Amino acid sequence: MQNFIVHNMTHFKLFLLIILVFAGPFIYGQNATEAVNTSLLNEYQSVPNFKFEISKGKVVSINDYKGKIVLINFFATWCAPCRKELPLVQEQIWNKYKDNSKFAMFTFGREQSWEEVLKFGKDQNLSFPLLPDLKRKVYGFFAKEGIPRSFLIDENGKIIYLSEGFEEPHFNELKELIDKLLK
Questions:
Q1: pTM given for the model
Q2: What is the DSSP letter of 67?
Q3: Strand 130-133, strand 103-110: pairing
């Protein structure tokens, strides 16, 4: 009987380990302190020129936004840290600078469709641009893995701040830098 219990406990522990390895990132997203740097771009690098759909059927280039401070954020609807971060982005960045002609913000739903990002935005009371990135075409310029992820781009198209994961001190750094640049 004791061998049976030990054998079953071993299988149970293995099962739990497999669940944590595969489900953990889906449940918890990624915290900044635990993040492995999987960025493809670094600070002071120029952001690559890429095109994206700004609204259904309307395509723009990131180069169209040179001369502005641009915040690019990547999220997913299932990501718990993203769900913590995005209301703060709405409240402390978007609401403050949405009418500033020197600011633009694009939040891409990694592996999400128009329908998913629009429903998520409505359900979460978010009014900033939520854009689909169904096949990681935009995300693929910036990183291999990890969300939420933010990149702040200066007027010349250079990355001046990037973060991976979500922690309030990092978010506050980003917010203070935007405040400094746009005041």
A1: 0.79
A2: T
A3: parallel
